[in-house]
């Protein structure tokens, strides 16, 4: 899952990004309203964490502009302000949830996960492909009844294949959603994680489609 944080408090933004990346999310960070609006419109994000008090363009206007343009990405608003009026204004502009500073990182993570679960019109978080069972809510994977312990990054790579079972998912698409916008390392890092998943889940689960990408099969090796 790829998230965008729009927050002008740089220390807070970096702290949130580090925490969310440790959970396996790909995270991009910007620090003003106009850039946040541009990035949210141009990028394929699964969720936006949006501060209200931003330079150049406040969060209400960013959120309103995104909704007016037909962008349906879930938006979690952050603010140092408090009160029912502020919350109502945020929700009226199209935000999906609202969190007042200071807040617990654990609460923010729970809100992020809840919004991501809601996306997809209530689709079940448990996906079954052959003898592979992936619980996206609990971030738990089983094959043939046996649990496979995955790292956060391994799970995120697998998740990109799980949401499109049987389809070819390119290396570029996996990079875009699992690694952040600023990643400039070797794109073959995807192959490293796919190899790790094959070791843990079995060679027959992920098929390489030469020159195109990877496909989740989920059948017995």
Describe the structure.
- The chain is of the alpha/beta class and 221 residues long.
- It is 40% helix and 22% strand.
- It has a 5-stranded parallel beta sheet, with helices on both faces.
- Helix 6 (152-162) packs across helix 7.
- The longest helix has 14 residues, at 105-118.
- The protein is elongated, with a radius of gyration of 18 Å.
SSE string, helices as H and strands as E: EHEHEHEHEHEEEEHEHHEE
Quantity of strands, as a count: 12
Q: Tell me the major beta sheet.
A: 5 strands, parallel
Residue runs with pLDDT of under 50 for 5 or more positions: none
What strand line-up does the widest sheet have?
Answer: 2-1-3-4-5
* Number of helical stretches of at least 4 residues: 8
Distance between the termini: 28 Å
Helix content: 25-40%
Gross morphology is elongated
Q: Beta-strand percentage? A: 15-25%
Indicate the radius of gyration in whole angstroms. Answer: 18 Å
Secondary structure class reads: alpha/beta
Report the mean per-residue pLDDT as an integer. Answer: 84
In short:
With 221 residues, the chain is an alpha/beta fold. Helices cover 40% and strands 22% of the residues.
Key attributes of the depicted protein:
four-stranded antiparallel β-sheet, five-stranded parallel β-sheet, 221 residues, elongated, 40% helix
Please describe the topology of this protein.
Layout: E1 2-6, H1 10-22, E2 26-30, H2 33-42, E3 47-51, H3 59-68, E4 75-79, H4 84-92, E5 97-100, H5 105-118, E6 126-129, E7 132-135, E8 140-143, E9 146-147, H6 152-162, E10 168-169, H7 171-178, H8 189-201, E11 206-209, E12 213-216
């Amino acid at each position: 899952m790829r998230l965008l944080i729009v927050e002008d408090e740089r220390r807070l933004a970096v702290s949130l990004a580090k925490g969310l990346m440790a959970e396996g999310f790909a995270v991009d960070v910007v620090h003003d309203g106009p850039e946040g609006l541009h990035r949210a419109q141009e990028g394929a994000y699964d969720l936006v964490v949006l501060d209200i008090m931003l330079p150049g363009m406040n969060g209400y206007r960013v959120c309103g502009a995104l909704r007016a343009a037909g962008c349906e990405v879930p938006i979690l608003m952050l603010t140092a302000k408090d009160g029912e009026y502020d919350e109502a204004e945020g929700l009226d502009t199209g935000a999906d949830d609202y969190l007042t500073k200071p807040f617990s990182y654990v609460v923010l993570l729970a809100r992020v996960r809840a919004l991501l679960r809601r996306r997809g019109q209530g689709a079940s978080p448990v996906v079954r492909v052959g003898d592979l069972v992936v619980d996206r809510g609990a971030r738990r994977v089983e094959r043939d009844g046996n649990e496979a312990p995955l790292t956060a990054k391994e799970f995120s790579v697998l998740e990109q294949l799980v949401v499109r079972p049987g389809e070819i998912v390119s290396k570029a698409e996996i990079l875009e959603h699992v690694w952040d916008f600023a990643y400039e390392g070797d794109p073959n890092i995807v192959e490293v994680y796919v190899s790790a998943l094959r070791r843990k889940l079995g060679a027959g689960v992920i098929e390489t489609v030469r020159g195109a990408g990877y496909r989740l099969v989920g059948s017995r090796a």
